[in-house]
Specification:
Blueprint (H helix, E strand, L loop, with lengths): L8 H19 L12 H9 L23 H12 L20
Length: about 100
């Protein structure tokens, strides 16, 4: 039986970008070497001047937990988001504010 590839080129590229972002976050680096692949957060910062990992509510640094790209899960997630008919419900016992994952 032929081996089925476990991931696509885009998924491998996304994981490589995530590794670079995580590595640089640990080192506290803002500048990447010229030959390093750029993550989406760095691209947003360069093009639009927006920090993609800054929490819009409190301004603290957020962590990228997962990348979903090019899989049936991505289609399921986006389809369910399109079906949404209003703002998300707050968590039990709270108003939904201040639910940030600090770096």
């Amino acid at each position: 039986m032929p081996k089925v590839p476990s991931s696509t080129d885009a998924e491998r590229e996304a994981r490589a970008s995530l590794r670079v972002v995580k590595r640089d976050a640990k080192r506290g680096r803002d500048k990447l070497p010229d030959d390093a692949p750029l993550g989406w957060a760095e691209l947003l910062k360069r093009v639009f001047g927006v920090d993609g990992l800054e929490c819009p509510d409190c301004g603290k640094r957020m962590r990228l937990r997962t990348v979903v790209e090019g899989s049936p899960a991505a289609l399921t997630i986006t389809t369910s988001l399109l079906r949404s008919t209003g703002p998300p419900r707050p968590p039990p016992g709270g108003d939904g504010r201040g639910v940030c994952a600090p770096a």
